[in-house]
Amino acid sequence: MSCSLLTRGTLEKIKLRCYEFKNGEVLDDGHALEMDLARLRLKIKRGYFLSICHYKNESEAVCIDPQPLGFQRITSSSFARYALIKASIMVRHDVSYRLQVLLYRFIGAIKRT
Q: Distance between alpha carbon 90 and the CA centroid of its chain, in Å?
């Protein structure tokens, strides 16, 4: 879920929860939040809007500047994410993560050729 900004009205309409299955798989609160936002047809903006630095230690950081989503728009489509999260709940495995990893590996292989 990273950093999310929600209005008070939105918070009143959703229920924060996660799904934990007997097979050890977990769909965290970010998945449930995404599903609720899509179900309620609430506006979702995705992207990197601020500069942020992730510190490895006191003196080392990796900084990310604001940038457009680009190709990630496909994998972050509200309709696609809703369908993948619902499928993940039905099969009790994080389908969306596995498909995203496969997709990015495939694109990486294409770029290298």
A: 18
